[in-house]
Structure formats: structure tokens, C-alpha cells
Design goal:
The protein is an alpha+beta fold and about 575 residues long. Helices cover about 50% and strands about 10% of the residues.
Length: about 575
């Protein structure tokens, strides 16, 4: 779907950035016109996320994310540009423009329709004669018809091309089947065959209700046990969770995170409607942020084996960054929730759930198991490792409570434990301060964008290029300056593209805003652009500042072409001194 500049400008006007961001972030006024809150894109305890109502931009001074209202929705909802526009259009009750063929938006819609029809095909197959293996498997696992319907379960026949034949008969192309991962190519590259065969099919449905992919559980022997759709225009394993479309409605106040789809179905069937599972990947930051939109607590319920314990430790670390409450459920005598519930019943699992340990208690128990404090050497190792763990806790009360437990286990005083914790925290603080001082001592480093792909080869020229971009954005009338350099003369490619877009739009009297630029630049580039325009600039002397920036860019270009560097350095110092005095 293509959007005109006028449409995007009107969309941004109807979706005030303060109103939109406030539905995700608690904003308060701190100073000046800007509002501040805790950044939704990284973990922080002191608000560094700023929203400027006058410029209609957001910018985080911590992680560097920034942009306008469209890019905010793209980031926080994990949407493409067309999807974010559609999201905001629905919010503002704006009709969408006529869809044109060939655009990414229309292609995405087509693939989602294909997935929906494939899900209906698999479901029909489950209840056909060909679906007998799937029916038997459902009965063996004790899955009720209510759960079959709730999760939209289906069956992929163990045949060469039954899905391909059915979908091409509905008008879908082989390329579309291949792009969704429903079809695989033959060795010759010609033709293809069904990607899912002989599997119980679980449609993966996103929080907006669209079928974005599939997870197929093999029936009988074979590998892999679970086969998931590959990454595609509509499906990202890192950014979605199986059954979150159902679990987001839970009244329990927490999400139960498990490893497998069958575990999720078993938990929902037993009355635990907040269960979700990853999609063939380790738990990710994106999935954690997705969960945090709906609840503030997660119960980790991974398999009771070495891999499961490692996955638990990883998930704890990720969820801690978002300040989410984490509990860990440990099952005795069963490897997973499905097996435990089938052996002991829902009430027994509920008792386990209610008695599940907080993440600190769980990790301290793991330290105790690793370094048994029954010998002097074991006690010393246990106390050192436990103190390191407590030193990572932010709250003093929390540190003191667990210090008592550690002291009792290690046979020392609480004061001894707290003293070691305090020493470790001071050491961490010194290291952090040293790192900050090293960064501050290098002006060139502080100028560099945080995104590695945007790094500057010539920081001095890039700084002037940033100033030129900022002035043109804030005061479009300056685009008539005859001495403006061409975009290709910029030392930074991304700054050259930003500058070129501004210059072209301003000279053609087209609107210039983050809304219209959101479809032309990616999120990292928009964040960088936002940082540039968020910096203060004295517009009362804008024309002179513009010419100063142009001269600096020219000086740096001359140096690259071989002019005497000592002469250039002297000229640059004189110019910079004069410029600083005028700013003061």
C-alpha cells in the first residue's frame, strides 16, 4: 500500500505523539516543554525517554531510540511501515487509501490470506479420512475437542503436494507458497513439495488475530520433533510467542512461559489460560517486551533437564532488564508440564504454581547445589558466588533479606555477607565510572552514532553535516542558500541521504516531517535523525551558522583531497573558536 505525503502528514496530525506514547509509557513533566518517562525499549530506573510535543518526536538519551509517531508504533508493536500506518489510521478512524498492487502492504496482506486459508485446509484435513493419524494423536495426548477448536489445530497429510494443490486451486502462486514457507523447492530448483507432512499443525496467531505461521509436531518417529515456519515478511520467531493471542486476555496477572506447544495446550486445558511458548528459538528481548505489555510477572516453567535450567537462567537475565517479577516453577518426577498434569492433576500443578520460588531464591539454590557449603572450601565458594548474585540486586531491602539466608547457609554473620556485597557493588560502580570517563575523554567517540553501521569516517565533517541537516529541518527557508554543498560531498553516506531528502523536498515545496520520512529510512536512521534535530540550535543566527557549517565541510573535504593538514587545522581552530564565542 502506498501513502501520499499529504496522507502521512494528516495521519501524524490526528495521532498526537504525546497521546500515543502515553498509552504505553507513563509520562511526567520534568523541565521545559518536554515530557519524560521510563524508556519502553530498554531497562532503566531513571527516566531518560523524552517526548517533545512541539517537535512531535521522541528520543531516549539512554539507548538512542528516536523518531516520530509512526516509527514509535513500528518499534513498540513490531510492525512494518504499512502496518504502523494502518494501526494509526484505525486509531484515528481514518480510511486507508486505495490499495495498489505490487506494494509491500498488499503482498503482506496476500501472504496472511494464504496462511489463513492453509490453516483452514489443515483443520479440514484433521477431520477427514486422511487425518486419522492426527485424530489418534490428539486422543493419545488427551487433548479435548474444546482445545482443538480453541487453538485451531489441524493435520498436514503425509503426502507430496496436497497443500500445494489445494492452495494453487484457490489462486495462490508457488512463489507465495514458497515465501510463507509452506512449500519447499526440489533439488533441481523446479517444482516443489509441501513443507509440512505427517504433522499435527498449530497455527501461530499474532496478538492482532492474524495467522502468521505454523508449528508442526511430527506424529511418530522423526526429526525435527517441531517444525516451524521460516522467517518471512509476515513471520518472525524472535518477535512472537505461541498462544499469546489467547494468554493476553488472562486475569491471573502473570504469563506462564513454557518450551512446547503441547505444554501450552495442556496448561490451557487444565485451566491455566496464561501459558505461552517460544517458537523454536531461545527466549528473546523482543518476546520479553511483548509480554511486558500485558503483565508484570512471568512464571518460568521449562523442562526439568540441563537444557531447561540453562534456558531458565537466560530468561531470568532478559526479564530482569525490564524489571519484571520472575518466579521459577520446578517439577519433581516429570520432565514437562504436560507430563506432570497428566500424572498428578491440575490441583497439584496449581499448588506448585502457588509455591514457585522467586528468581533470586531459585538462583541461590542453584549456587548452593553447585558449591555445597558442607566443607570449608565449599562454604567459601558458595559465599563468594552468592555475594556476587546479591550485588546485582537493586534494592537494599531485598539484599538484606537474602543476605540473612546466605549467612545461615554459609555459617557466617549477616554483616559479613553484606560487607562483601557492598565491596562488590563499589567495585562495579568504579568500573562503570571508569568506562564513562573513558568515553567522555574521547570527544570523537561521543560524536559517533551508537549504531555501528552508521559510524563516521570523518567525525569533524559529520558534526558540521549534522548541523546543516538540523538547520534545514528547523528553518526550511535556508534551503535557498546558494553555497549549499551537494549531498554527495558529505563524508557520511547516511547524512548525505538525509540531507538530500530534506533539500529535495524543501526545494519542491513538499512537506518535511518524520511522518513522511518514516517510509524512506529505517529505524536506526530515523533514530539518528531524531538525535540530530533534538539538539539545540540558535535560529536567530541560522544563516551565519549555516555558512559556518558549510565552510567546515569544505575544509574537511579539502583535507581529504590532500591540502596541507597543518594549515587546515589552524583555519579550523580559528573558525571553531569564533563560532563558539558567537554562540555564547
Amino acid at each position: 500500500m502506498e501513502f501520499s505525503d499529504a496522507y502521512l502528514e494528516e495521519l501524524a496530525r490526528r495521532n498526537d505523539i504525546v497521546d500515543v506514547v502515553s498509552s504505553y509509557v507513563n509520562l511526567t513533566k520534568r523541565s521545559g516543554a518536554n515530557l519524560f518517562g521510563l524508556c519502553p525499549f530498554h531497562s532503566e530506573k531513571t527516566p531518560s525517554f523524552s517526548v517533545a510535543p512541539d517537535k512531535q518526536i521522541y528520543h531516549c538519551f539512554g539507548c538512542g531510540k528516536g523518531g516520530g509517531v509512526i516509527s514509535f508504533i513500528m518499534e513498540i508493536e513490531g510492525l512494518s511501515f504499512p502496518e504502523a500506518v494502518e494501526f494509526l489510521a484505525r486509531r484515528a478512524n481514518m480510511p486507508l487509501p486505495e490499495e495498489r498492487s505490487g506494494g509491500e502492504g498488499s503482498r503482506r496482506k496476500r501472504l496472511l490470506e494464504l496462511n489463513r486459508d492453509a490453516a483452514r485446509f489443515f483443520r479440514a484435513q484433521l477431520f477427514s479420512d486422511k487425518g486419522l493419524p492426527g485424530q489418534n494423536y490428539v486422543l493419545e495426548r488427551g487433548i479435548s475437542m474444546a482445545m482443538v477448536n480453541r487453538f485451531g489445530l489441524g493435520y498436514a497429510p503425509d503426502s507430496w503436494s496436497s497443500l500445494i494443490d489445494a492452495m494453487t486451486a484457490r489462486g495462490y502462486t508457488e512463489k507465495e507458497l514458497f515465501d510463507t514457507g509452506l512449500m519447499k523447492r526440489g533439488k533441481s530448483g523446479r517444482g516443489g513439495y509441501d513443507a509440512f507432512r505427517g504433522r499435527l499443525m498449530f497455527p501461530v496467531i499474532d496478538v492482532r488475530g492474524s495467522v502468521i505461521g505454523f508449528s508442526g509436531r511430527i506424529i511418530g518417529e522423526g526429526e525435527p520433533k517441531y517444525l516451524n515456519s521460516p522467517e518471512s515478511l509476515v513471520f518472525s520467531k524472535r518477535s512472537n510467542l505461541f498462544a499469546l493471542n489467547l494468554a493476553k486476555k488472562t486475569k491471573s496477572g502473570y504469563i506462564i512461559l513454557t518450551e512446547g506447544n503441547i505444554d501450552v495446550v495442556a496448561l490451557h486445558q487444565a485451566g491455566f489460560d496464561s501459558a505461552v511458548a517460544s517458537l523454536g528459538t531461545s527466549f528473546t528481548d523482543e518476546q520479553a517486551r511483548l509480554i511486558s505489555r500485558y503483565v508484570s510477572e512471568v512464571v518460568l516453567c521449562y523442562d526439568n533437564d540441563t537444557a531447561g535450567r540453562k534456558a531458565t537462567e537466560r530468561a531470568i537475565g532478559i526479564l530482569q532488564k525490564l524489571d519484571m517479577k520472575v518466579r521459577v516453577l520446578e517439577m519433581k518426577g516429570a520432565k514437562d508440564p504436560d507430563e506432570y498434569i497428566r500424572a498428578n492433576g491440575a490441583d497439584a500443578f496449581r499448588n506448585l504454581l502457588e509455591g514457585s520460588a522467586g528468581q533470586v531464591a531459585y538462583r541461590l539454590k542453584a549456587v548452593e547445589e553447585q558449591y555445597s557449603p558442607t566443607t570449608d572450601e565449599g562454604r567459601v565458594n558458595y559465599l563468594k558466588e552468592a555475594a556476587r548474585l546479591l550485588a546485582t540486586l537493586g534494592g537494599q531491602v531485598e539484599r538484606e533479606v537474602y543476605a540473612v539466608q546466605v549467612a545461615e547457609k554459609g555459617g557466617v554473620s549477616k554483616e559479613a555477607v553484606l560487607s562483601e556485597v557492598a565491596r562488590l557493588r563499589k567495585a562495579r560502580a568504579r568500573e562503570e565510572k571508569k568506562r564513562q570517563n573513558q568515553s567522555a575523554a574521547s570527544p570523537t567517540r561521543s560524536i559517533q552514532p551508537p549504531e555501528r553501521e552508521l559510524r563516521y569516517d570523518n567525525p569533524r565533517s559529520a558534526r558540521a553535516e549534522e548541523g546543516l541537516i538540523r538547520l534545514l529541518y528547523l528553518d526550511p527557508s535556508l534551503s535557498d542558500e546558494p553555497a549549499l554543498p551537494p549531498p554527495e560531498s558529505f563524508s557520511s553516506p547516511v547524512l548525505g541521504r538525509l540531507y538530500g531528502a530534506l533539500l529535495r523536498r524543501e526545494r519542491e515545496k513538499q512537506p518535511v516531517s518524520l511522518a513522511v520520512l518514516s517510509g524512506e529510512f529505517d529505524s536506526a536512521e530515523l533514530s539518528h535523525f531524531t538525535r540530530i534535530i533534538a539538539e539545540p540550535e540558535e535560529l536567530s543566527r541560522g544563516r551565519q551558522a549555516l555558512r559556518d557549517y558549510i565552510e567546515v565541510i569544505g575544509l574537511q573535504r579539502d583535507s581529504a583531497e590532500g591540502e596541507d593538514l597543518r594549515v587546515l587545522a589552524e583555519r579550523l581552530r580559528n573558525k571553531q573558536t569564533k563560532y563558539n564565542r558567537e554562540k555564547e
